[in-house]
Amino acid sequence: MHVIKGLLNFKIMKKVRWIIQNNLIAENDRNQFQEACDKLSVEHVEIIVVPFSNELPEFPIDDEYENIYYGSTTLMNNIYEQLSKPAGLFYDQETFSMENYMNQWREHMLSYGAEFMTMKEFANKAYPNDRNFFIRPDGDGKEFDGVVIEYGKFDDWYDKLTKCDAVGLGADTEIMVGPAYNIGKEWRNYVVNGKVITSSRYRNNFKLSKSGEDIPEDMIKFVEDRCKEYQPHDVFAMDIAEVKDDGENKYFIIECGCMNSVGFYHADIFKYTEAITNYIETL
Fold first, then answer.
1. Which element (helix H / strand E) includes 274?
2. What is the DSSP letter of 97?
3. Is the pLDDT of residue 154 over 80?
4. Topology, domain 111-178
5. Which residues of the chain form beta strands (DSSP E)?
6. How far apart are CA 95 and CA 76, in angstroms?
7. Is 33 or 12 the better-scoring residue by pLDDT?
């Protein structure tokens, strides 16, 4: 009887295969991916993705393996639209949006109280030309990077951006509009099942500044406390800002992101690969 119970509780580990884009990805990151997969004895396949194309490159899909994908936003959008939300794509259009984060984490969000509108609606406002705003897409489509801009310069900025063939960008693109904040440091945290697996500082006083050592314990605790309240997915990235508020430094969530296309800075790619592989193996 005990043997039967043991067999019923036995769970077969899934085979995992990483599908890794090898163009438009930093060579050092790609090499670390290869080393991590080799060390973990996990199969990996490299593919080439045509920028801004809706064509998926050829890669193996079979019942024996569960694929995990890493690459550009173009690749992830195409997989999301064409492959019926596979387990190895950690994304949901409904949950990965700034408006959703605001509703869930409220005052813990850096831009809590920001407005949501289309590009056209923002352009038609009557704000003073010298007023600064922080604007970014509402979703995780990466139509453009978040930017602080004077209102009077918005039209020129928008015209230049649309001439660069930005994916999906237009007058009806939904954006978040909020005040600009004086941010000290910024970190990216890589989360699996509510735990921070690895982290990297990526900015200090608005300048690129990468570090895998400057990772405060209280910042990690802040992230994991927020994960107890809500998570857009079991696997995701969370960016954190340190801001001086009422005379003291406080942490706020900047945004979250899809782990399939996230940048690494000085995060530990082996820990990232190992944690996500284990996650998929035990689903």
1. helix 269-281
2. B
3. yes
4. Dna Ligase; domain 1 (3.30.1490)
5. 15-21, 43-47, 65-70, 115-118, 132-137, 147-150, 174-178, 183-192, 195-204, 207-211, 235-245, 248-257
6. 15
7. 33
CATH class of 181-257: alpha beta
In the block, residue with structure tokens 């605790």: 221
φ, ψ for residue 178, nearest 5 deg? -150, 180
The pair of structure tokens assigned to 172 is 């009806």
- Residue pair 17/37 in contact (Cβ under 8 Å)? The answer is no
For residue 37 the two structure tokens come to 């997969």
Q: At what angle do helices 27-40 and 269-281 cross, to 10 degrees?
A: 50
| CB distance 189 to 255 below 8 Å | no
12 band by pLDDT with thresholds 50, 70 and 90 = low
pTM (two decimals): 0.88
What is the longest distance spanned by two Cα atoms in the chain? Answer: 77
Exposure string of 266-282, with b = 16+ CB inside 10 Å and e = fewer, is bbbbbbbbbbbbebbee
Measure the CA–CA gap between 123 and 125, rounded to whole angstroms. 6
